[in-house]
Amino acid sequence: MESLAQLEALCERLYNSQDSAERAHAENALKCFSVNTEYISQCQYILDNALTPYALMLASSSLLKQVTDHSLALTLRLDICNSWTYCLLSYSLPKMDFKWIP
Length: 102
Prior knowledge:
The protein is mostly helical. It has one domain. Helix content is 73%, strand content 0%. The relative contact order is 0.13. Residues 26-70 form the Importin N-terminal domain.
């Protein structure tokens, strides 16, 4: 993948395209993120920097698959958990309504 913007566009096609051939192409191009452990750091980068929910979905589901399918070191598992938690909080907190706090 040449850029994050290209990856985000491909993720949007994966989840939104009405054309099954286009979805299949996107799925094939993005499969490496969920099956190859060398892409874990790129998934974490996507979690930290992506702007679209489709790219965040790809990265989080790929990391979940990596953690459940492979025997990863505990420190790497914790790092993945921290990346995911940070992503969730940074994406969700700005949208939360804190008017109930005095």
